[in-house]
Design brief:
One of its GO terms (molecular function) is RNA binding. The chain has three helices and three strands. It is α+β, with helices and mostly antiparallel strands and 77 residues long.
């Protein structure tokens, strides 16, 4: 569920939605989501001073609270 949420948010922000990939790594109590976008879209996902990236992380973490899990969103190149 968290993976799909992150994918849909990222696809709405970028110019190349077909190049959005999310890798999900699960542990007992945490989930690591690695977001990969096209090189030209990196700025759109991060935003000025990281504001968009912070907003994305906040939304995904809020959605994970009801599952009582910790979510980490990594934006990788």
């Amino acid at each position: 569920m968290m993976k799909e949420l992150l994918e849909s948010i990222a696809r709405a922000l970028v110019d190349f939605p077909d190049e959005v990939f999310v890798n999900e790594i699960q542990n007992e109590k945490s989930i690591i989501l690695e977001l990969k976008v096209a090189k030209d879209d990196m700025g759109k996902v991060i935003g000025k001073q990281g504001r968009i990236a912070k907003a994305i992380r906040t939304v995904v973490k809020a959605a994970a609270v009801k599952d009582n899990r910790r979510v980490v969103v990594d934006i990788i190149q």
